[in-house]
Design brief:
It contains twelve helices and 20 strands. The chain is of the alpha/beta class. The longest helix is centred in the C-terminal third of the chain and has 21 residues.
């Protein structure tokens, strides 16, 4: 039954908060997520920037940061909101319902926040060739493909800086987001080499980052005015291109480049995310896979626990009895095997420590296993949208469209977690929150990709489904989604959190 404003006024403040937080998103509310998502993509070109921004967003909505290196007992309470980072490139956020009881389930959304990119090599200095200064880079996953040619590329990432007064090493983020690098194509006038379908990524896809005054044909490393300040003994900076060190030092206001201990830098597309189409119904953007589902999941968790925007975000969460969790992991594109990846202990350990803290420090294997068994996970990764120019490669009735909603991803060979029970579960969630589900499965003569779903659900024994928003041009440096898709993701994911207990009660 739909409640009117008078019904809400007659309810207690606590019940009003619950009713507002469970309300369906309107069309205007769905569209309100479009521009913030564009800003998120443009302003956070590296995984470190993305996680840092998510952490700040969570803090602004009353979430408390936890440290994995400290004890959590007595820090986590019913009604609380928390997050924990790992490596500055993965983040897990969660809330505890005020009616939580030990052994109750967890509603989990797992996504990956890394994207295809190129990374600066440990010692990227290259000999100057024909007057060009170049930079040594390496592809991360399937990047450095043909879509990276002739793009305006910036440089950014995490820089470790030693404070000489304290001796402490801190991580700082840097973003040189004006065009710095470019991988130039060879003009077609040169014949066969210009049409080579398999250019050498080590020798023919090296970006140019500047010019020097060396004679044409020289292969010697150029001298640079700033290189003199790097002399006088070994430092990390002395192994790096002097002009790059100078640019980063200026951006971070570092007076002594020798205080730079190390860095992890990415080369990224600087063109902003933007709306396109006759009626601006598209989003054209870099790094959509899978910052899209990560963004929608985080916003859904915030919306599910914040109630109305007129309410104080620092107040306790609604009166549910579960733990609501969003995990945004790094390294999915390369197998998730590192400590910040989904295949690590990050998510199971976070759940176990949370359950232990809520049980007064007394956590048995039985209690953790019941939490997993009573839980449900959405593995949220982008799916393939139908491409009108290649309809023949799509399986009939399994071709998702843009601006419709999340697509359930099925695969008969275990590349996804989807089965009949999990599909029925999410369909009931969609029914309750007014969302529409699509379905994708690849043809028998094509190869399916993988997600974080199978590795996480098998590690925890948790019921799970793979479902994500569809996009065009997956693994291109720029991709396309619908302008409403970020908000449609928020709508379904929020509904999952809001209606989890009701839907779970329908299943034996």
């Amino acid at each position: 039954m739909t409640r009117n404003i008078f019904d809400l006024r007659a309810m207690s403040p606590k019940d009003r908060c619950s009713e507002r937080s469970r309300s369906h998103l309107s069309s205007a509310e769905i569209e309100s997520y479009t521009q913030p998502f564009l800003n998120f993509l443009t302003e956070n070109p590296t995984v470190f920037h993305a996680v840092n921004t998510v952490a700040g967003r969570l803090e602004s909505h009353g979430f408390t940061a936890l440290s994995s290196r400290e004890e959590w007992n007595y820090k986590i309470t019913k009604g609380g909101k928390y997050f924990v980072e790992r490596n500055g490139s993965s983040i897990i956020a969660f809330t505890v319902g005020s009616n939580y009881k030990p052994g109750n389930g967890a509603a989990v959304i797992a996504a990956h926040i890394d994207a295809l990119t190129t990374k600066v090599k440990p010692i990227p200095t290259k000999p100057t060739k024909a007057g060009y200064v170049q930079l040594g880079i390496a592809p991360y996953a399937g990047a450095l493909n043909k879509t990276w040619w002739d793009r305006d590329l910036g440089i950014g990432g995490k820089v470790l800086v030693k404070d000489k007064s304290t001796g402490k090493i801190e991580a700082r983020l840097v973003k040189l987001d004006h065009p710095i690098a470019r991988i130039p194509t060879l003009a077609p006038h040169f014949g066969a080499p210009a049409y080579d379908p398999n250019p050498n990524p080590e020798t023919q896809m090296v970006p140019i980052i500047g010019l020097d005054n060396s004679p044409i044909g020289s292969t010697t490393t150029s001298k640079d005015p700033e290189s003199t300040q790097l002399q006088g003994g070994y430092s990390f900076a002395s192994t790096q291109p002097p002009r790059l060190v100078g640019a980063i030092a200026r951006e971070l206001k570092i007076n002594d480049p020798a205080s730079i201990v190390n860095w992890e830098l990415e080369v990224f597309d600087t063109q902003p995310a933007q709306l396109g189409g006759l009626d601006k119904e598209f989003i054209f953007a870099p790094r959509i896979d899978d910052k899209l589902c990560s963004y929608s999941a985080i916003e859904a968790l915030i919306a599910s626990t914040s109630g109305s925007t007129t309410l104080n975000d620092s107040q306790p969460t609604d009166g549910d009895g579960i733990i609501k969790i969003v995990g945004c992991f790094d390294d999915e594109e390369i197998g998730s095997l590192l400590r910040q990846g989904a295949r690590s202990n990050f998510l199971p350990d976070t759940i176990e420590r949370t359950v232990a803290a809520l049980a007064g420090g007394q956590c048995s294997p039985d209690l953790v296993s019941r939490t997993f068994a009573n839980g449900f996970m959405i593995s949220a990764d982008v799916s393939h949208a139908v491409n009108p120019n290649y309809l023949e490669v799509y399986l009939e009735n399994h071709a998702p469209r843009l601006n419709i909603g999340v697509a359930v991803q099925a695969d008969p060979n275990g590349h996804t977690t989807t089965n009949s029970v999990s599909t029925a579960f999410l369909q009931r969630v969609a029914d309750k929150c007014g969302s529409k589900l699509q379905v994708f499965q690849i043809r028998n003569d094509s190869r399916s990709g993988g997600t974080v779903g199978p590795m996480l659900s098998s590690a925890m024994g948790m019921r799970a489904i793979d479902a994500g928003l569809p996009q065009l041009s997956m693994h291109s440096i720029r991709a396309t989604v619908g302008n409403l898709d970020p908000g449609l993701g928020v709508k379904l994911f929020k509904g999952f959190f809001d209606y989890f207990e009701e839907v779970d009660a329908e299943f034996a």
